[in-house]
Amino acid sequence: MAATAKQADRAAPARNRRTSGSSRSRKSASSPETAASPDAPLPPPDGETLVGYYRQMLLIRRFEERAARAYTEAKIGGYCHLNLGEEATVVGLMAALEARDYLFTTYREHGYALARGLEPGPVMAELFGKTTGVSGGRGGSMHLFDARRRLLGGYGIVGGQIPPATGAALALTYRGEPGPDAEAVMCLLGDGTTNIGAFHESLNLAALWRLPIVYVIVNNGLGMGTPVEQAAAEPDLYKRGCSYRIPGERVDGDDVLAVRQAARAALTRARVDRQPGLLEAVSHRLRGHSVVDPAKYRSKEETDRLRELDPVPAFRSRLLAAGVLDEDAARRIDERAEEQVDAAVAFAEDSPDPQPGQLFAHAYATPVPNSPHQLPGEPVLPARQEGAF
Amino acid sequence: MAEMTYRQALHDTLREEMVRDESVILLGEEIGVFEGSYKITAGLLAEFGPTRVRDTPICEEGFVGAAIGAAMLGMRPVVEIMTINFSLLAIDQIVNHAAKMHAMFGGQVSVPMVIRTPGGGGQQLAATHSQNLEVWYAHVPGLKVVAPATPADARGLLTAAIRDDDPVLVLENLALYNTRGEVPDTEQVGQIGRAAVVKPGRDLTVVSYSRSTVIALDVARQLESDGVSVEVVDLRSLRPLDRETVCASVRRTSRAVVLEDDWLTYGIGAEIAASIQEGAFDYLDAPVRRVAAAEIPLPYAKPLELAALPDATNLAKVIGEVLDATRFTR
Fold it and tell me: In chain B, where does DSSP find H-type helix?
């Protein structure tokens, strides 16, 4: 049973909860002959696609469980934030994003990296701090980056990604015209982040400048240990774009297809109409804020309830019931995910550590004289000849 | 060569770089329709239009961060922050993002952004509008910080900054915008990371940057007629810092004074002094002295403001003290 009425409200989000977007009244930039409106339902995905989503969700699930274990084995240091429980949101969002789009995430990003197509080995290697890591071991769990797959980070500062994501969308307006083939930006953020200044400044700019960007709030009910209602004066987070006339929508983050649908519609409006959008995906974090958080602020009832809502077994059951998967196929998928994660860990373990001699490898993109490259204790100037008096 | 103001040199550089490279765009408050609060960007909106000269709302964190994101996708934004005081609103984006992205993401991306911003006090703008915060940014690996003192250097260093693929903060100064100097007609790409001996001398080195260099040169010229030969080293680049040029000068003169507009404690001069005493210890005949601003939020009242800010008289006095302490004979 939910502890507060508000938690119950958030726990069972109504479908299709939306603010009246300015897009309704704003003249569309697209031609009148454009096909179905952004909100027209996508054709139902075929069995192969659905199984593909399940595969991705399970890979994320197993990867994150293994990362948690690796952290306790001291193979991963620093912070490690997991997407456990959020797999449907992750896969649904990444299914909507095109290869040509750009993605900015929070620090809770391993699942997004995997669903975006980064190989599990180099992702695990980044967590292990190896040279073969996606960021060369320089960034770690919170700073995954892949230029080719257009994952532009990975950010540890809460909300730090939002202005740069907005700027990336600004750059897109110089590159090409709006249209169904145009590029767009998806910027992920957490529920707690909607209270920081960078969120508000960025949404204002996106609306003023008509940028092709969708801001996706992954609302898992908690900003670290703080419930949404204790941090946000407007806890219906999808409404928070109203101040900027940015239409908002709340979607059930446990429903991978609903997430995909909503994200696709918002991205279409962004790329075709240059109408920025706000999407709130209500999901759940199965564990604590990070691997070292025992989540004592959660009651046992809450933790049990979360287990019941777990989207991964739920999706598996749904596919089995629909005949898209049988038990054998499901088991093979499970085994495959385990194999992939095992291989990722082996790759990471066998990869080399970066050496101190490489410390300054990425000091600057443009080399300039007198860049200080002293290690601690080294002199400020190279040693001079004696007797130069 | 043409004689022009520091303001004009900046303006012409922006214009030429925008003609040369269409990925150069300007962002900032009041840079377009208002023509710039200090008129650096006058006429550029009319020439290049509102997508290349973008007036922003008052949201430094937002528009500096947006410039970072645009730079990540290959644009070359030149952001004007009205004064360095307001950079504090954007300091997270500058320090935690622009400075760190290239290294943190394993070299996969760079941030070819320029921030242009004036520091300085002396116009009775009071405490929050009169600061010199450049040392905070000069402290941060991943940033470059340049401080042109003359119109020629304004042109050269701004050009270099725009063409550089890293985030560069170009420190201007309210008191320098109307100063005049010769600027070559040809393309000038300054060297980030190098200081310059702008006046050779034998007896004492003054290390300075920006407005302080102008003051130091005035004092040095006056002292020549008194039989004192002062060498002035203009840092021009605060990050990277050209320690070798500074130390080489002190090896020649044996005496050093820093003139700086920022507050004394933990200021730019603290680094210069530490570097000189480590890099040229055996050559020093006296401790390195620093002439810096009094450590109090700058008051509005003119007599107090004058008293708090370092000037030519302060510098000449300290130079005299160092010469006396070393029994210098004219």
Answer: 6-20, 44-48, 60-72, 91, 101-104, 134-138, 151-163, 211-224, 243-253, 268-279, 302-308, 312-325
